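Hello,

Our lab assistant flagged a job as stuck in the queue for most of the afternoon. It eventually completed. Since we weren't sure the result was trustworthy after the delay, we are filing this so someone can double-check. Below is the sequence as submitted and the structure that was eventually returned. Let us know if re-running is recommended.
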Amino acid sequence: MTAQRERSLRAWQASPLAPLPVSVRDSLLGSSVVVHIPAGQSIGEAYAGPTFALVHSGHTRVQLVTADGRTATIRYAGEGQLLGLPSAIAGTTPWTAYAVTDCELTMMSGALLRELAAADAGVAWHLAGQMAQISYEVIDVLGGNIFEPVLQRVCRHLLELAERTDAGLVVVTDQHELAQSIGSVREVIARALRTLREQGLVERTSAGLRLLDPARLHELAAGQVDHPQG
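-- returned structure --
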């Protein structure tokens, strides 16, 4: 077994596809390819063919893109998560995905997934459940970006983007990326981050923005406590 195949299998076992029959796994992974996507690069194109992948490592986000280049995040997919399941089922998508950090993905066939689901009602029902979960995630992100205060949104997205390192949870994205994620501007993000630093919740390091108090950030992201004032 190749190293890439082993990584694909580990990603599968950590993903929502793990309960599917081994025959389904072997069919999808048998025709898959492992790809490396550098940070900042698109993964698929809006209104093009389906993009269906398992995320091995890194962070991706699915986004709406306006004609003038503005973006709005609708979902994140990180290690062990699926990217592009709606695209695979529908055969196309109006959204595009984006590598927030360097990523490794197993790219699978959306057409083959549809064939397998059409042949097995149990597979189709499992995929329907995953589609419902993704829909909830999209609604949650969009609702937060519309209704939540900026600081709450920033906390939410920091937690989504954090990577576990020897130094703790670290966010390697910059202020521009955060602004793109929450549909704001860089100056607003800078003020929010300054407030979080002054409250001792984050600190800037050479590796990125380290989350000093993830539990408190979770409370702020969930709106369970009053927001600190900058």
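-- support follow-up --
The delay was a queue issue, not a problem with the job. The result is valid. The chain has a mean pLDDT of 89. The longest helix spans residues 121-147.
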